[in-house]
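Now for today's protein.

===
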Amino acid sequence: MKRGIWITLLAIVAFAAILIARLPVSWVSGFIPKNVTCAELAGTVWDGSCSGFVAQNVRLDGVSWQLRPLALFGRKLAGHVELTRGTSYVRGDIEAKSGGTLAARNLQADMPLDPALIPQLPRDLSGTVRANLQSLQVEDGAITGVQGLVEAHDLAQMSAGQRMALGNYTLTFPPADPGKEPVGRLQSTSGPLKVDGTLRLTREPGFVLEGLVAAGPDASPQLVKELSYLGSPDAQGRRPFSVAATF
């Protein structure tokens, strides 16, 4: 093959590589799923953003991403993703594979307990959640692996038309054995309740929350009354509780 043809082919390959690397994200907007909308797209397919993001009727201020193109050779989509709504955020290194498997590392979040963001939440529950997870694994909608810390602050619940403070809590997930359901340690850190329990994430998907709870010295009469429905306390004033649900 003549030298001139080689130079031409190399030029075409170089041009294609530059075009793919700088491909405006707006050019592929037609591939966005019907249940996802973006008010404005900016940047490239590999390093871009979407403002006015709406998915499954959940509205965010914006989503930004920096993808790793070489991950496509492993038949996966990987990169850093950040979701924002006001001062709230979720960000981390995400890796999605075919078959509904999602893995995240260095996942951080700071957000309110808002049914508009998480429809599965009870509408009478409020507070804020902060998370710092080293890893998170999701398969077919079920959390199959998680390691790290989740904090809940200023939890409160409406009861009989009144706001009932529940306090602050930590949920710690240690490294788990592969194949086993993740189990986290739930503990109260301050507030009207003394709680010590576990949260097990099941494959349905769902969860089982169980442990012991006692009223603290600053518990309201309404809260003490609510706890009495759990049965008789032990010698330390603790009552067992168990809650299970599927999504």
User: Anything to note?
Assistant: The radius of gyration is 24 Å. Residues 1-20 have pLDDT under 50 and may be disordered.
